[in-house]
Amino acid sequence: TSHGVFLEPPAFGVVIGEPLADPTTAVLDDGRIRLYAYAQGIGIVSAVSDNGLTFTEEPGVRIPGIEAGQPRVWRLPDGRWRLYVSKMMEIASFTSEDGLIFTKDSGNRLTAEAAGLPAISSPAIVEVESGRWRMYYSTLAIPGAGPGGKRSGSATSTDLLTWTVDPGWRLGEGAPYLTDSAEHPFPVLDEDGTVSLFYGKFRASPGGAPDGLYRAISADGLTFTEEAYTGLYFGNDPEVLRLPTGNRIVYYGDFDPAIGG
After folding, report:
1. What is the average pLDDT across 74-92?
2. 8 A C-beta contact, residue 252 and residue 232
3. What digits encode the pLDDT tens for the residues 86-134?
4. Class of the CATH-defined domain 10-108
5. Where are the domains of the chain?
6. DSSP result, 104-158
7. 197-242: per-residue pLDDT in tens?
8. For 113-239, which CATH class?
9. Contact by Cβ (8 Å): 149, 181
10. 62 to each of 15, 22, 35, 100, 122, how far by Cα in Å?
């Protein structure tokens, strides 16, 4: 079921035609939904909702300027909030007590060099077992570079700060099965222990599968053997949230030159 457009320029002061993109969400202790997004020329901003469908902008900027892009929020075991962000050549992070005021963590979480990529983006995390987490990431989609040629990898951590790259590739060139371009991966741990990875597939040549949002499935979170088109044409930057009702909602980005992201 489509719920339409939630946020678009001129929300948060974004200029018409510019991106308001990369949504990431979390359920707060009071049951509300907070959505963070990248606002072109402004930084990482946030909005809140009682039902996950109608959002009210929150004042201020969570992370200003060009310090961060493509955010992913994660609730730490101690209750604090962390935003993992893309900085082209590295993934960095910012931590907050209240989800509103963030302080940059020292160092980086993972570099593009360590991941074997020319540039890195879209960190997204799932807890694979108690005290062990896996981060998925992909090649950074650079404006003007054209579609195709993206691949997704992963890394693991026991403290959510230091990440070790998993051997091989999950999706894209070099992966054992699903070798089409794949970007902006987002993992969902299903009740049976399988991992569903949602991602954007945009081909460099016409024909074949349609462009848009796909879902791949893996028994171990490392080898993905099956994929299916979600029907969301040209959808990208997915975030899947389980609402307090138990339903799941997919937030994703789109772009219209007359409007923006």
Report:
1. 96
2. yes
3. 998 999 999 999 999 999 999 999 999 999 999 999 999 999 999 999 9
4. mainly beta
5. 10-108, 113-239
6. EPSS-SEEHHHHT-SSEEEEEEEEEETTEEEEEEEE---TTS-S----EEEEEES
7. 999 998 755 667 788 999 999 999 999 999 999 998 888 899 999 8
8. mainly beta
9. yes
10. 19, 14, 11, 6, 18
